[in-house]
Automatic annotation (TrEMBL):
Residues 3-157 form the TiaS-like TCKD domain. The lineage of its organism: Archaea, Methanobacteriati, Thermoplasmatota, Thermoplasmata, Thermoplasmatales. Keywords: ATP-binding, Cytoplasm, Ligase, Nucleotide-binding, tRNA processing. This is tRNA(Ile2) 2-agmatinylcytidine synthetase TiaS. GO terms for biological process: tRNA wobble cytosine modification. Residues 163-276 form the TiaS FLD domain. One of its GO terms (molecular function) is ligase activity, forming carbon-nitrogen bonds.
Length: 445
């Protein structure tokens, strides 16, 4: 049976991943694949912090081969590998006792009395179509649309409040896992609590020492990016491409700091995959709330405006598009500020109201910079002086000439730019992973 949950937290507290952790801990002997943390459309106004939805797969395990995926109260959580079957044959009837237990866990831990917290819980004996996942990355899906799908598939679902969470719950189950990364989350309920800065740095450096991890630290600033604000049960989260490396990192942390050896779990995720990015082909129209890869030419110089946000313009085909890098991206804006008219660029980001919110940028081919100079008189060879309107007059004979343009020695290189790790979106693929090999076999874990 598939279990999907979403929209249980608020902007200031709670965490849906922790509820998934509690469900997995409760049914540890029946978990048959890694729990899934699936990030959806980052542009929706009613999202909480990262727009992440969770799903879990439960079945009757018969295989002896098991792999440890975490610990709950110091006891190992393991799952049985399902390498020999693509989609297990789940029973057509539902386990009502299990359903009530899951609902009870959600009701215990979700953020109550929050207007924008509207949990949805979904139970399905079959995986949902991948198109639902794609739609959930690219647009705003109505609750009614998902409810119709649930009714047609004889799925069971529970709504709290408006129940908007059923959208993410179904979309998480529908994730195709064409690109998979992993995240190890360490918990302390109800809040992660204070962690000394020196301890944070040591843990960050342990994670950073593995080539397969990403978004651990911002080395230029020495800032550790694994520890969220102390408002949820998450102490830290370590992201990587290799499952076994995350297990090894946690063991290294445990050897130094045994207090972190009690509650943690690894999730399969779509984080850092650019799954939300659509390649903008010729003739395509930009759609509100979708995210794109766009190649064009800078046609308006970068300018900082009130609040520190940096704006510039690009020409895509015959279309003029504004681009913005927001203040929290810090030094990223300093690099973008060096762009020149005519630079050939590829940028990635979400589109809304005529503006691309930049997640990263590649300078494919810098424009050639020319310097305007006063020409020597073509008649007598004397100096000329600027008389305005791009005209120059010979001081000696009065001959009027156009300015001279000379290629400068200023050489600019192609480059790939991105915000610091702490300012990146969950889904955005860091340049470090550009040529990475992502796991694609959903049933390997």
């Amino acid at each position: 049976m598939w279990i999907g949950i979403d929209d249980t937290d608020s902007r200031n507290a709670g965490c849906t991943t922790y509820i998934a952790f509690r469900i997995v801990s409760t049914f540890a002997d029946r978990i048959i694949s890694l729990p899934r943390l699936v990030r959806l459309n980052p542009n929706l106004k009613y999202k909480t912090r990262g727009n992440g939805a969770l799903s879990i797969r439960i079945g009757n395990r018969t295989e002896e081969t098991k792999t440890v995926i975490g610990k709950s109260d110091g006891k190992k959580i393991s799952l049985g590998l399902q390498n020999n079957e693509m989609e297990p044959d789940f029973p057509k009837t539902y386990d009502n006792s299990m359903i009530e237990q899951v609902v009870g866990i959600v009701e215990e831990y979700y953020e109550k009395n929050q207007t924008n917290t509207n949990p949805g819980i979904v139970f399905s004996n079959k995986k949902f179509d991948t198109d639902i996942y794609r739609n959930a990355l690219e647009r705003d899906i109505p609750v009614d649309y998902i409810e119709e799908i649930l009714k047609k598939t004889d799925s069971i679902y529970r709504k709290i409040g408006s129940g908007r969470g059923i959208i993410g719950a179904v979309s998480s189950i529908a994730w195709d896992r064409n690109r998979t990364t992993y995240e190890l989350l360490n918990y302390k309920y109800p809040r992660g609590g204070y962690v000394d800065d020196m301890v944070k740095t040591i843990i960050g450096k342990i994670a950073e020492s593995y080539d397969s991890t990403f978004n651990n630290m911002e080395m230029k600033e020495g800032k550790v990016c694994l520890f969220p604000k102390d408002r949820t049960p998450v102490i830290y989260g370590i992201r990587g491409l290799v499952f076994d490396d995350l297990i090894q990192i946690q063991e290294e942390i445990n050897s130094r700091f045994p207090d972190f050896d009690r509650n943690y779990m690894i999730f399969a995720t779509n984080q850092g995959t650019d799954d939300h990015i659509l390649r903008l082909e010729s003739g395509m129209e930009l759609r509100e709330l979708s995210s794109y890869e766009i190649t064009g030419y800078v046609n308006e110089l970068p300018l900082r405006k009130e609040g520190g946000h940096l704006f510039f313009g690009i020409k895509y085909g015959v279309t003029d598009i504004k681009a913005v890098a927001f203040e929290p991206s810090k030094g990223f804006r300093d690099e973008l500020e060096k762009l020149e008219i005519g630079d050939h660029v590829k940028l990635f980001g979400s589109y809304a109201k005529g503006t691309i919110k930049i997640e990263k940028l590649e300078l494919i081919h810098p424009s050639i910079i020319y310097e305007r100079r006063s020409p020597l008189c073509s008649r007598c060879g004397s100096r000329t002086s600027n008389i305005g309107s791009l005209k120059y007059r010979c001081i000696k004979c009065g001959n009027v000439m156009e300015p001279e343009y000379v290629k400068t020695n200023y050489q600019r290189m192609t480059m790939k730019l991105e915000p610091p790790a702490y300012a990146r979106r969950h889904l955005s693929m860091p340049w470090k992973l550009e040529n990475a090999s992502f796991r694609s076999n959903e049933y390997e874990f």
